[in-house]
Specification:
alpha/beta, binds zinc ion, 11 helices, 253 residues, elongated, three-stranded antiparallel beta sheet, binds ligand BJW
Length: 253
Amino acid sequence: MHQPIGPPFSDTLVQRLRDAQRVAVLTGAGISAESGVPTFRDPDGLWQKFRPEELANVEAFLSNPELVQGWYAHRREIVEAVEPNPGHVALAELERWVTGRGGEFLLSTQNVDGLHARAGTENLVELHGSLLRSYCLRCGAPAAESAGAHGPLTCEECGGLVRPDVVWFGEMLPEEAIAQSTEAAALADVYLSVGTSAVVYPAAGLPQIARQAGAYVAEVNPTPSDIAPRLNEQVRGRAGDVLPLLVAALPEA
Ligand code: BJW
Ligand code: ZN
C-alpha cells in the first residue's frame, strides 16, 4: 500500500495565509536547534546539564557571578560560530511575502541568539533579550566583554557586576516588546508558534491570545507543546523542514 506523501500541513493553513492581512509568529529554542544551538528542555538540552534555578535568575547570578557569566560566554561562543538555518530563512521570506502584499508581519522570539536578525527578519521583537549584549547591574551602562579577565567581569565605569541583557525568571519582559507582541497576536489572522515548549509565560500566552481573538493558530514542532491542544493545527516536523515547504506553497507575491 502506498501512502500519498503530502505536505505536513493542511490546505486550510495555506489558504488562511493567502487570505491573511496580518501574520504574527512566536519562536522558541527549537527553531535554532538545526543550527546547532541546544534547546533548554529537550533531552540533550542546556538544562539537562545545568539546573535553571542555578543559572537563570538574579539570585543565582549574585551568588556565583563568575559561573553564570562563564555559562553565557560559552553560549555566546556557540551562537557566534553557527549560522541561521532554513527555518530562520523561511520566516524572513514569509515576512517579505506578507509585507510585499501590503500586509503586516511581526516575529516575536524568545531566543537570545540573534539568528532571526542575521537571517533577515526585519520586524522583530526579542522578548527575552539578547546574549550578545551585557550591561552593568549597578549603573546600567552597556558593557563590552573583556576576555581573559580574572574574577567576575565588572563595569569599567563603576566596578559593578556585568550581566547578560537577558530576561531571567522573576524579571519583567521589556515593556514595549510584550506590548507589541500582544497587540500583534490579538490582531493576527494567522499565528504560528514555532519550536517552543510553551511553558514559559507571558510568551506562551501569545498563541492563546491570538486563538481567542479569532486567528488561525498553527504550531510547528516535532513533539506537541503544552498548549498544542488549544491551537487550530499541529504541524509535526522540524522547523527547517516544514517552514520552507510552507513558504513554497504560497503563491508568488
Ligand atoms: C523543535 C525542533 C526543531 C526541538 N524544529 N521545534 C503564569 C503562570 C505561571 C508562571 C508564570 C506566569 N507568568 C509568569 C510566570 C513566572 C515565569 C514562568 O513562566 N514560569 C513557568 C516556568 C511556570 N515567568 C517569568 O518569570 C517571566 N517574567 C515575568 O512573567 O515577569 C512578571 C512577573 C515577575 C515576577 C513574578 C510574576 C510575574 C520571565 C521569563 C524569562 C524566561 N527566561 C529564559 C532564560 C533566558 C535567558 C537565557 O537564554 O538563558 O528564557 S527561561 C528559557 O525558557 C528561555 C527561553 O526563551 C524560554 C522558553 O523556552 P523554549 O524556547 O520554549 O525552549 P524549550 O527548550 O523549552 O523548548 C524547545 C522546543 O523546541 C520543544 O518543544 C521541542 O520539541 C522543539 N524542537 N527541535 C521545531 N528542529
Ligand atoms: Zn556600572
